[in-house]
Amino acid sequence: MAIFSDVAVASDRATFRAPEVYRSIADTGYATYLPAQIGPARAKDMLFTGRVVTAAEALDWGLVSRVVPHGELADAALDVLRACCAGAPDAHAEVKRMISTSYGHYDRMTMERSLYGPEALEGWRAFADRRNPSWVPQDMHTQGRL
After folding, report:
1. pLDDT per residue as tens digits for the range 60-93
2. Domain holding 78: CATH number?
3. Which domain holds residue 67?
4. pTM, two decimal places
5. Which of 75, 83, 130, 143 has the smallest count of CB within 10 Å of its CB?
């Protein structure tokens, strides 16, 4: 969600993760947008490992634009909203259109294909059963779901 926000304000307690590969989902939206947002190496780290990214890392990487103390989140988000609303809508739309061209276009067909194959079924079953999917080597199993 943060990568689709025009200005992302996060709590200092927030974490970010892209665990779709654990469910056999080739999220081509993330694969398209994350490299442009945070760089290819960091995008691969998030998308291949499903690791948890802290709010501080997300700010450093450019995934969010502001991190504030948890108790100040609502006020900070409203301040951003007020500032955005003071700008001209057509000017905002043109700026957003230009920025959005840097992201490219995602491959919806590949993502949809990944949602309906046998790996996806196993991924969802493993998630529901709180176990590792069958493609994880036995000696690399972790406790519970990934």
Report:
1. 999 999 999 999 999 999 999 999 999 998 898 8
2. 3.90.226.10
3. 2-136
4. 0.73
5. 143
